[in-house]
Design goal:
The structure is a single chain. With 185 residues, this protein is α/β, with parallel strands linked by helices. Helix content is 54%, strand content 15%. The strands form two sheets. Strands 2-5-1-6-7 form a five-stranded parallel sheet, with helices on both faces. A two-stranded antiparallel ribbon has the order 3-4. A hairpin with a 2-residue loop joins strand 3 and strand 4. The radius of gyration is 17 Å and the shape is globular.
């Protein structure tokens, strides 16, 4: 079984995934697809392509400086599309390998962009976290140690997923909501 969890930055995707895993009687695993994106930035071929597309300034001590790269891609949809073009094929290989390695478990995928991928259609249950803006902003600022301006930049680059079909739309992730979801599995 594959469960997809979507929501904007600070909505609690990872927290919900961990709560579901804690309450499931069967083996379950969680893949934060943002972390897959971070991982592929360390691949030599990805670093080279990124350097060629975005310039030397995004490389620091032979590593991609995610903060500098983020300042570029969150400010421009075209630059974000370039980043996606470079990294997505590598991310798909990592995700496909993860799904294959864990095909005997409940797999929870979490990512805002999940509805724009083939993985969304593979999900047996699709959950959208529609958490109020102010709550998300405070969570993200605290969690990521960023400024309000940095959150606003991230938010402005965010996508709308309202046109997609979800099995559950949660506006809070309290224990009762989690138990209700787990009962449905």
């Amino acid at each position: 079984m594959i469960i997809g969890i979507c929501g904007k930055s600070g909505s609690g995707k990872t927290t919900l995934a961990n709560q579901i895993i804690e309450n499931l009687p069967t083996k379950a695993v969680h893949l934060d697809i943002d972390k897959v994106g971070h991982k592929v930035l360390s691949f030599p071929e990805v670093k080279e392509e990124l350097k060629n597309s975005f310039g030397e300034s995004i490389i620091n001590l032979n590593e991609v400086d995610r903060k500098k790269l983020g300042e570029i891609v969150f400010a421009s949809r075209n630059e974000m599309d370039k980043l996606t073009e470079i990294t997505w094929k590598y991310m798909q290989m990592e995700i496909d390998d993860y799904l294959e390695e864990n095909k005997d478990k409940v797999v929870i995928l979490d990512w805002l962009l999940l509805p724009h991928t083939k993985y969304f259609d593979m999900c047996d249950m699709k959950i959208l976290l529609d958490i109020p803006y102010e709550v998300r902003k405070q969570r993200a600022i605290k969690r990521d140690n960023i400024t309000e301006d940095a959150f606003l930049l991230r938010e402005s680059a965010s996508i709308d997923v309202s046109g997609f079909s979800f099995d559950h739309i949660l506006q809070k992730t309290d224990k009762n909501e989690v138990k209700r979801i787990v009962k449905l599995l």
